[in-house]
Amino acid sequence: MYCKDIMYISVSKNYFTHREFSFTLKDDIYLRYQSFSDQQDMEKEIQKRCPYKIDIGAVFTHRPKDHKTVKAAAFQAQEKELVFDIDMTDYDDVRNCCSGADICPKCWPLMIIAVKIIDTALREDFGFEHLLWVYSGRRGIHCWVCDEQARKLSPNARSAVAEYLSVVKGGENQTKKVNLYDHSIHPSIQRAMKVVKTCFQDYAVKKQDFMGDEERLDKVLGLIPDESLRKHLREDYGEADSETSSFKWQALKQRVEDAKTLNKQEWKKSWAAVEEIMLQYTYPRLDVNVSKGVNHLLKSPFCVHPKTGRVCVPMDPDNIENFDPFQVPTLSQLCEELNQMGGTEDEKKRLKDYKKTSLKEPMQVFEDFLQKLEKTWKGKKLEQSDMKREF
């Protein structure tokens, strides 16, 4: 099934042989431009090398393992899935529970929000159908867009898609990273706001207590453009620690709403303050460089993360709220489950190994994804046959 996913064999004979893989071995030995003639060749090399991690790259004009024998100008990346990498470390300025590579149930909702927003946007705004969402094994998630038109996008087109989906912009030294202009909100952002509004109270107000002390309060008020409005809010709050985040957030929303009729000048500058704050604290943060490069490598699904031991399992976007990264199986757990497998010998032979373990459900997600993708392959093959008048 794994090879079926990355070969697209019903469309192109060279998809697998010209695809780059990279292996990370013990002691961080990094082997790029690996390629294989078929599934058996790949299995043999994996068994021989025992890589700690496998990354998947582009499909090239020539077999990657022969790149040194080909002129550099002739060896070019032709296509690859459009990919998105969402890393929890990019939210460190707006989460109070963890930092760096750490995650917990209080900040994981950020990934749930990201899947809901990006998945819907890619399907409804761009018409993509074949999206594979994968947990990275530690602190983030990956999205592989496998539609043919996505695989053939140029770097500029990939960058345009990623930029379209990027609302939070600016480096560490920039305070306000979301700016909505012209007193109108783009329909895509309006749709995203529906997701954010259903989650914001529980995530930001309760779990993160995002206005809970002086430092956090200053950070939120720093996102309000109008100085007069900030002053009025300070008066409403009194002592910063005397009221809850829930009270402060409700007071902020009410002040902005009142400004529409009571203080046009305040409202003119801060008409979107509530939406901008909510988006800055929850909207997906994409690594545009990962998405725009056709030659960019991304960790393969079903790898085992070397730090956590967790398997990089596919996730069902329609059931993303029930995905728990802390329940993802580890390699040692899977080995133990196989060792404890009961039943008769005949029953054991009839069941595939993964169906005896905690990988059963993630593999079902993967199988469902492949079945839908395969229908597209077959349709494409029939279309090509008709064009060649092959009946």
Helix-strand blueprint:
Elements: H1 2-7, E1 19-25, E2 29-34, H2 39-49, E3 53-60, E4 77-79, E5 82-87, H3 109-124, E6 131-135, E7 140-145, H4 148-151, H5 155-164, H6 187-207, H7 214-221, H8 227-237, H9 245-262, H10 264-270, H11 273-282, H12 288-292, E8 298-299, E9 314-315, H13 331-339, H14 345-350, H15 360-387
Helix pairs in contact: 3-6, 6-11, 8-9, 9-10
How would you characterize the overall build of this protein?
Helix 8 (227-237) packs across helix 9 (245-262). The longest helix has 28 residues, at 360-387. This protein starts with a helix and ends with a helix. The strands form two sheets. Strands 1, 2, 3, 4 and 8 form a five-stranded antiparallel sheet that branches. Helix content is 43%, strand content 12%. The model has no long low-confidence stretch (mean pLDDT 90). With 391 residues, it is an alpha+beta fold. It is globular, with a radius of gyration of 24 Å. It has 15 helices and nine strands.
